[in-house]
Amino acid sequence: MKVVSVAVWRTVRDHDESRIVEEANRVSVEASDSKMLMVASGSLNHKIWAIKNYAAHNGAFTSSSEFNRQMDLHVQELWKRGDHATFLKMLGDYARFCCGEGSMHDTAMLYGALGWDSYDKPCEVVTEYFPSSGTGQTNVIFPV
């Protein structure tokens, strides 16, 4: 087994640069006879409760922002429907206004590997949305 590990915390780059990295990886995989598994983590809102508010709001099990929670649920519905083109049009604002971890470059890289806005497969939600320390969490399979 060969492993290519790419860590992302690209707060000074734009999503197109992250997309291009994974488009290149996709070309490499397609040119080989190897299988690929991509694991991306951290793609919903990442607004953690402030320490001073954590206990009062049972922070481990609640969302720190109703706006962010609603956006996360909307994103999850877009993914379930396979409406990735719409999601990608809002990715920059979603990352900015919903405190995307690492500016959601992991998500841009995932979509680069999948074909960006030409990817249209419905996703399988393995774990329904849940809050954790104020953030939004889920586990989703993006089929190829």
From TrEMBL:
Gene3D superfamilies: LigB-like. Residues 2-142 form the Extradiol ring-cleavage dioxygenase class III enzyme subunit B domain. Pfam families: LigB. SUPFAM superfamilies: LigB-like (SSF53213). One of its GO terms (molecular function) is ferrous iron binding. Keywords: Dioxygenase, Oxidoreductase. This is 3,4-dihydroxyphenylacetate 2,3-dioxygenase.
